[in-house]
Task: structure prediction
Amino acid sequence: MVTSELLTKFGFKEEEREVIIGHFDKTGFPQPVKFYKLSWEVFDLSLEEPYFWILDNFKDSFPVVEKIEDSFAAAENSAFFGVTQQRIGAQQEKVSQFLATTGKMIKELFQMVRELRIIDERLEYYNEIEVQCQKPMEQRSKSAEITMKGLFVDLVQGGGKSPASVYGMARELEFITLPDLFFDAPPFKNTEELDEHVRSLEANFNKNVIRVLQRHLRQYLEWRKRTHDEHKNRRRFQLTYLRQHFDIIQMYINWVKPYLRNVSRLTMKEKNMLSPDLVSAFEGSMLDVEILARKEKVIHEDKEDTKNKIAANGCVLATFYYRTRPEMKVVQEGYQRGPVHVGRFEMNLRVYGWSHKEVENYKEMKKQEVFELMGDVSASVKVAMESLGKELEYYLEEAKGQDAKEKKSAGKPAAKSFAEKFMGDFYTPQEQKAAKGPTVKDAKKFEAQMPEELKGLTTAAEFFCFNTYKNFKKAHRMVMW
Result:
């Protein structure tokens, strides 16, 4: 049973039914067209048989039969609980290992992206200097060159504390004009331009100052060329490593998905654990199974996107509620124990006339309820990925040999967002994007035909539902009139 908030969120009106004589209450299901209920308590028959009897009849009458929910709870002191906890413990251990490794690698991803940002910042100065070197000497801008010279003096020469640096010589040896001449020099393409610039200063400055200036400029020019090549190579290596690192994270995410699904299905349902029907000292269990049988008639379908269609569905939603006593018996080869459920069986059949969109909304609503564990993990990993910003996507695209900037300027909309492509089943978009398909005018025209189609399909679903209900009671020797 889902909450009223989820039903309202997905556009369903909640069913109200007489739960006990004279008292009406909300059931947690959408309002049906028709409703049938059957309770059956047996002490000498396995309750798996009624479920499969109904399922086989639905398969004969409806083209599509889907399982929507399958959850259980068991008393804490029962043998069934112990066996289940052993299995869930093994799954949880695997999940914790994968998630711990994934978290560590995502943390490393932050450092790698940060390092690439720093490299790109430095390369921006180098690239600007190369552009300026193509211009005539007197037209060259000095801003990037001055920034790189400052880094050279601080990182390579040791700043003002080193006597051999530009600032140190100005302070210790009184080369007062040396820093000004060093920083005022324009960007040089090669040593010939450097020597020509130094010769032009000989007439106005002391030869010793010129000699020291030439030494520092030549040392800086060589450092700039070497570090430019080093940064380009380091960036190329870092991009390749980032891509490899990202692929490994994606591999771990894919590995952990089946374990998370298993943990979610093996986890006891909280609502049933708190039910008065389940007492911890007794050998008891409670199971909820829900299947949706439907017959679909497509009114309009988009040829490019087959998922985007306007269709009418005659649906029967069957919910099975078990309160059982599981007996652990040797039922499999290899002397492994398994439960045989004996006890009370309750079946509810609800008939609906739903459009294709309403069917998808109901399945999505149940998915949000059943896979809450996966949703939490999805949200946390998704937030971690998105906090890296657009840089991660850009660097990964570049690592594949594609230019992300050109793609962006071309204005080609991506079918899926980066987070959705990465997360797959984990990802839950904050906003549902408008899908391709019929225009609003066309949709209204096709939806106008919906009531007639729904009426015919709902009538057929009512007939099959009642027939199944009637035949089940007769086949199991119950009174039917």
Residues 207-266 form the longest helix (60 residues). Residues 194 and 200 are 10 Å apart (CA to CA). Residues 371-375, 402-409, 431-441 have pLDDT under 50 and may be disordered.
